[in-house]
Amino acid sequence: DITLSRSEEDSCDIDHFFPHILKSSEFKNINGIWNLVIACKACNRGIDGKFERIPELQFLERLNTRNNFYIESHHPLRETIINQTGRTDKDRRNYLQNFYNNALEVIPIKWKPKEVYEGSF
């Protein structure tokens, strides 16, 4: 389990799916909610953590699924994610895929965690 308590060993971090360093390469809205994910400490800042690498493609699909969940559930973040990534599912998928392809041109190093658990998204 992952907890939000800072005092717990298994606490989580909020991480950028696409690394924050891309902001210096004129990638827009890198701090948008659409790009923020929950990560365990090992993935975010551990020895084999993601740091300034691009997650493998399978994780982009999970990000898209998560974002669509917020939109379809009429979560308060719905309009923000729509405004940041696109009105339709196809628009959002294209936005993420284009962002992914462009990010790999700047940072051509992919990353995946040592362990992958079944996700909610």
Plain-language structure description:
The strands form 2 sheets. Strands 1-2 form a two-stranded antiparallel sheet. Strands 3-4 form a two-stranded parallel ribbon. Helices cover 39% and strands 12% of the residues. By secondary structure, the protein is of the alpha+beta class. The protein has 4 helices and 4 strands; from the N terminus they run ββαβαααβ.
Please describe the topology of this protein.
Layout: E1 12-16, E2 36-40, H1 41-45, E3 54-55, H2 57-72, H3 78-85, H4 89-106, E4 110-111
Parallel strand pairs: 3-4
Antiparallel strand pairs: 1-2
Q: Specify the overall morphology.
A: globular
Q: Let me know the number of strands.
A: 4
Strand order of the largest sheet: 1-2
Query: What's the oligomerization state?
Result: single chain
Structural class determined from secondary elements: alpha+beta
Poorly predicted sequence stretches spanning 5 or more consecutive residues: none
What is the alpha-carbon Rg in Å? 14 Å
Please describe the biggest sheet, giving its number of strands, its sense, and whether it closes into a barrel. Answer: 2 strands, antiparallel
Helix content: 25-40%
Residue fraction in strands: 5-15%
* Average pLDDT taken over every residue: 90
Number of helices: 4
| Distance N to C terminus | 16 Å
Order of helices and strands: EEHEHHHE
Total count of domains: 1
